[in-house]
Design goal:
The complex is a heterodimer. Chain A is mainly alpha-helical. Chain A is built from 4 helices and no strands. Chain A has a single domain, classed as Helix Hairpins (Orthogonal Bundle). Classes of the chains: A mainly alpha, B mainly alpha. At the A-B interface, helix 2, helix 3 and helix 4 of A face helix 6, helix 7 and helix 10 of B.
Amino acid sequence: MNEILAQGPGPGAWMLLAALLFAIGVYGVLTRRNLVAILVSVELMANAVNLNLVTLSRTHGSLTGQSFALFTIALTVAEVVVGLALVILVHRTHRDIDADAPSRLRG
Amino acid sequence: MTPTAADLAVLAVPLLVLAVALAVFAVDLILPLHAGRPVEPPGVGTVRRGVGAVAALGLVGVLAATWLVRADGPAMGGAFVQDAYALYLQRIALLAGALGVLGSIDHADRRFPDRQGEYYLMLVLSVAGMTLLAGARELVLLVVAFELMGIPLYVLAAMHKTEAEGVEGALKLYLVGAVSTAITLYGLSFLVAHADSTRIAELLAREPTPMAVLGMALVLAGMGFKVGAVPFHLWIPDTYQSAPAPFVAFLSVGPKAAGFAALVRIFIEGLNAARDAWWPVLLAIAVATMVLGNLFAVPQRNVRRILAFSGISHIGLLLVAFGIGTAQGLGVLLFYLTAYTFTNMGAFFVVQAVGRTRSDDLDDWRGLARQHPALSLAMLIFLLSLGGIPFVAGFWAKLMLFWAAWERGLGLVVFLGVALAVLALFYYLKVARSIYIEAPAEGAEPLPPLGRPTAFAIAIALAGVVGMGVVPGLFLDPALAAARALLGG
């Protein structure tokens, strides 16, 4: 028991945690109606990716995953910048940032 | 690892496109283009259009340069490779970009004159991402190039930023894009864990494990979102309906080509050994995309939505071509993408030209041929090409695709494809019927005269469609050669 505690959780546990984070993110994207909350959920999904990458870096003892994670973080930031700008546009045109507000396009 | 001069020579195409982007940015900064001055200096309108001309000429210049300068081979330690396959896709991207800029000049000048600079900058940057993506053989580079291609599209989709519909379409594109990026990255993280490397060549070397299969499924789902395969297609009609029409022309072809470039690099070059794991799933997605795209298109009355759903059905056919996996199949994929680029861009340029004073509803298109015979004839040829009628580009694309699928033993898919092609003719000809047979609505004013850049863009698209129909070998032979070079056979 003490040995296990000393070692800390293994890679499987970390990957499970990442999978949970990812699932929570997907759930948030699907159920949240507030656009900012949806963006936060996408961030959770992206961070699950980072956790996964760092875990595999640790298990393989290489830097591959860690360096990949750095790129993912930068990309996510770039994406969220555009996303938040769009949320502001939605607020300007619809006076609301509820995801159901923009729903004119049908057919 | 420092890039050497040889590396830079191999990276010439993406670097040149980036140079064009910087030139557009500089011209936009230096010239007095921005509105909001109390008195506009005379001639500023002409100068403003100059930004578009810089972007268009720059991209055409790079496209021409791909024939003059050739530096094949790997660069940056093998992360990027400039091979015949990458070159072909780069030419498609440059063609789509140049046509997209050309077709945008009149529209941008009319709708957002003081933001033209950023519009062209984003469009050229997106093309730069595509040209880089075409040769990416390393997952980090692939992902970064994909985002360089993708993020500007969200900005471009929202160019009509004061219109509720425009913002809504952009938001849908963005949410789908961001979620699909996250899913793709999650899948890639498993693939990287599987191979302990970001090199695509390393993926090939390993036996597939359950983790790799999970990764493949996630990447396939994420890419399915990007190219708009069923069941991830819902954003396409809404975005196509609301974004600036010349941008939609670009969006409907460029990013699709890029998506297939990435799929081919990951799945054919990297994971062909694990073909049995992904091929059945892919085939199911492809068939569903073909069937549903066509079925949804039938009841539509809005020209843009018809083109959007027809685009989805074409994605299904492209997925079949991709999944066939032989040199024949990949060559057809490249040829099909070229034909689709000319055809769909031309059709959307006509939509833009008509949409200046009319809605996209078919009722507003009635009797167009009586007032505008040339424009109507162009639209008819684009529609026939989309439908696959002989002696225009789309016919050879479909024929070659069905032939390649038949040789691969996919007889059922071929029968289904032919049946759906007949169904597709129904809704393509529905548009043609409105234009040619029905009487114009009472008091329908003729359209204002076409701007020269738009007319030129439509003419080039038309020349491409007819040219590919008459001498398909000119495009097909290099495509097949490029595919053979990629598969090494």
